[in-house]
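Posting for a labmate who doesn't have an account.
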Amino acid sequence: MFNIKDVEIQNIDHLGIVAGIVDSIGLVEIINDLLGVEEEEKVNSGNVVKAMILNGLGFVSKPLYMFPKYFESIPCEHLIGEGVKPEYLNDDKLGRVLDKLFLKGLDTTFLAISLNVVQKFQISTLISHLDSSSLHMHGEYKSCLPEVIFENEKEELQLNSKQAINITYGYSRDHRPDLKQFLIELICTGDGDIPIFFKSASGNQTDSQSFGKIAVEYQKQMKVDSLIVADCALYLRG
């Protein structure tokens, strides 16, 4: 006989649609191919990124250590993957995955995903739109290496470390010149304004320095002959 006490109801709201789209574009598999899967890990990098996307649509104002709390009230395994529990999505795991993404390169990761999306959904790339925007940040964001290390160690770190962008002052598109910032350079397809090429840049970089290089790299990576629409920065040199 059916027992109502055995029924557990959990609300997924819009997250079911988002999780379905993530699955349809193969994001989890792409991330795992790029970053690798460790045999003993309880949750792989692809599922962690999927969880970040779901979390970003409703829990962004909370500190990172509260990340697992968000998934205690929703069907975690149903949305993310079999065997994935909220406690597996802790800040240590998130930090390790973010480090891996940085070392692999976010532009490389984004490109791999967008190429798959363009092919899977047959998105037209005949016309593309290029522009940049700034996002302001709060805090000091010191870009120098720690002073406690020795000079020879500092030189070795600078040589072997992947170069990060600089969070610094620059022309503010969001009208906060009092705060440091970084830039997002984005190309969207004319077919639905879908973002298909992404690069992050230092806060003081000018569009005239980068737009020409981005246009060339975009056509080379995507292997398309696309009409690129942009402002005058595409034709000027800083």
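Reply:
Got it, the structure tokens are right above this. The radius of gyration is 21 Å.
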